[in-house]
Amino acid sequence: MEKRPLAGKVALVAGGTRGGGRGIAVQLGVAGATVYVSGRSSGSAGSDLGRAETIEETAALVDAAGGTGIAVRADHGDPDQVRALVDRIAADRDGRLDVLVDSVWGGDPLTDWEHPLWEQDLDRGLRLLRRAVETHVITSRFALPLMVARESGLVVEVTDGNTARYRGSFFYDLAKSAVIRLAFAQAAELRPHGVAALAITPGFLRSEAVLDHLGVTEENWRDGAVKDPHFAYSESPAYLGRAVAALAADPDVMAKSGRALATWGLYGEYGFTDVDGTQPDFAAHWADALVDEYGPLGDPL
């Protein structure tokens, strides 16, 4: 891959505040892109998640990586705010948007891992769907016209898992499966206009929240395997980011449109590594250590 294959390209990473979204934004910056980073957690106003990370921090990391980071606070559940965000990009960049990444989530505090549907709080579950699915629909509704007008671009829907395996909680499973279907449906409608759309999942992602939960940092993350042995096979957000940057730089990415992809299925093709030079493959670890307990991952959707 060229050193800066995305120089001159414009990207929007919705939900780029932390985790996979931040990792993707930074790696798009490494590849030379101008990256608009949007979300609710800003230096001027936080979100109900109560996390310390901000969109401004992510934008600064994009700058430090060699790209251009632009933070724009927006609640992607509010159509007016998303419309204003896209209008700003159009005005700033002469209508150009090459990459749309939708990594909006915010569902961790709403996920009930203990109860079946009939025992769950309905309002809480529906709020999860609004955050995790409706936000993606709203974002694409306003951003896609920029790509369609130029007859080029890539839409990336970030999810969890790329198969039909049940994900352990009704509303969580519904949200993550729906995001894959969003990519499939967008691919069908965008194909005549030369725009690709796909879904992508990381493996066991070392997000800030996961690191906090295990009481470690990115510097000593391996110590987290004491509490969770499977964490030894985790991957950093940069690994997901490098996968997306490789896809965005691939002139033949249209061949992957409509598919549900994974970091473990792409590192061999594109040759990217994690920050420590390794190439984590969580599907291989699953087959070795988890399949007897949880069943096979299944074939990609």
From TrEMBL:
Coiled coil: none annotated. InterPro entries: NAD(P)-bd_dom_sf, SDR_fam. Pfam families: adh_short (PF00106). SUPFAM superfamilies: NAD(P)-binding Rossmann-fold domains (SSF51735). It comes from the Bacteria. This is SDR family oxidoreductase.
